[in-house]
Design goal:
alpha/beta, 127 residues
Length: 127
C-alpha cells in the first residue's frame, strides 16, 4: 500500500474542511486505491502539531493543547527524522512567506498543492 503524508499549512475554513474530508474518506482511499493518507503535520502561522502517526477526529483539541511554535526547518527535520513517505505540503494559507519557501520545499522532495491565492499574484520571474 502506498502511503501519502500530508503537511497542511492553514487550519482556517479551507484547511479545516480538507482535514475533515480526508479523515472521513481515509478508509475508502485505503480500500479502493490502496493509498494510506496520513496527515502528519497541521500548522497555522504560529504553531504546528506534529503527529507522525497522523491526526484523528480530535485534531482541534489536540492542536489547542499540543501545538508548538515552529519554523520551516522544524518541518523539514520532522520529515527527515520520521522518514515520511511521499510528503505533500498543502498550502491553505494566504502567506507570502510560505509561497517564498516553495522552491526549497520542492527541492527537498516535497510535493506541493497550493490553494494559496497569493501564489498566483507574484511575478512571472518567481515561477
Amino acid at each position: 500500500m502506498k502511503k501519502v503524508n500530508i503537511i497542511l499549512f492553514g487550519v482556517g475554513n479551507v484547511g479545516s474542511t480538507l482535514i475533515d474530508q480526508l479523515l472521513k474518506t481515509k478508509t475508502n482511499w485505503q480500500k479502493e486505491s490502496e493509498i494510506a493518507v496520513n496527515i502528519a503535520v497541521i500548522a497555522n502561522s504560529k504553531k504546528a502539531l506534529f503527529k507522525p502517526e497522523g491526526i484523528d477526529e480530535n485534531w482541534k483539541e489536540d492542536f489547542e493543547k499540543n501545538a508548538q511554535a515552529y519554523n520551516l526547518e522544524d518541518i523539514l527535520e520532522f520529515s527527515r527524522k520520521h522518514q515520511l513517505e511521499n510528503p505533500v505540503v498543502v498550502d491553505a494559507t494566504a502567506s507570502k512567506d510560505l509561497v517564498q519557501a516553495y522552491p526549497k520545499l520542492v527541492q527537498t522532495g516535497f510535493h506541493l498543492v497550493a490553494a494559496n491565492k497569493v501564489a498566483n499574484t507574484l511575478s512571472v520571474e518567481f515561477y
